[in-house]
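quick one, 377 residues, struct below
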Amino acid sequence: MQDPQDFWGESSRPRPRQILLDVLAAGVFTLFALVSAMQQPVLVVVGTLTMGLALALRRVSWPAMALLATATGVCQLVAGELVVLADLGFSVVSFVLGAHPRAWVRRLGLGGVLAAALVVSAAVATGAIGDAASGGSAAFAAITAAALATLVSGGGWTLGYLRWQTRQRVTAQVQAGLEQERTRIAADMHDLVAHTWAVVAAQADGARYALGDRDGDRKAAEAMELIAETARVSISDLRDLLTELRYQELATPSGRSSRDALVERMRASGMDVRLLERGHPSASAPLAVAAQRLLAESLTNALKHGDLAHPVDVEEDWRDGYRLVVRNRVRGSSDGLGSGHGLSGMRDRVIKAGGAFDAGASDGTWTVRAVLPEPDA
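---
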């Protein structure tokens, strides 16, 4: 199985179709290069053929490619002749080395570029390749040869290195996106599990304490019914979450009915929820789902940490996006209430959507404020 982080396939074997394409391209290149090399010494022809083989193996084995390309240079150096068309293959070889994921291979390729420029320059200056000029002409010829070698090989290496940098940047962006997605999934699962078990725990405690009352059986039955309903809703929410993970549209976006069911569950758990709504719920599924989860987590925190002897005030404003304000009295000290996973998950959700989030205690009252913009159509 391919490493999920190696989505460029750099560590995987090349496909037969890719190898076939490389062989065909190298064959065409070699045929054109041989046209200009047929009148040259045998070593030059051999060097041209080895360059074509090097290009054919560029995906299969970069060491073999580099050795064959080096053999091409040696053949031309020994023969004392350059084949300009065949030497253009050095740009492809340098490109492969410059784009390699391993740093030491890229450095090796850069070293090869510098070595090629120096060797070609020295060979031209000493007359090992071509006819050595005298005086300033020899120096000019050597500098020109070094410049051309650097342009061909160095240009290929530079393009390969730029390709590697681009892939690194894209990889970092994708990994950051995956990390954000993992964080979002963790926040969604926390919201779902925390809300469900907070309601279940409250109802289970209520049922246990009610057993000693005169209407204990009825109250316990009502608590059990609410626990069952909460479990069913939790399963439905879990299905919605799995639908999102499959990148599918929700069948029906959360709306007023889901919000009302949530509020009724919290009221049945002993919370006096006082709801004030302005506007109408958005038709946007992502905004409606986000609003539902923000409200659920805010009420869950109020159920776990709030003083249920006092009412919980909820304000929802659907005009121009979504605004939520939840206020509840704190039970005991408010120290540490702002450090839980629930609040950090809400904050991340809101900020990722381009909104604003704030939560804190003042004079014994805990207040959550969230603003979500209307998603672009």
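The mean pLDDT is 80.
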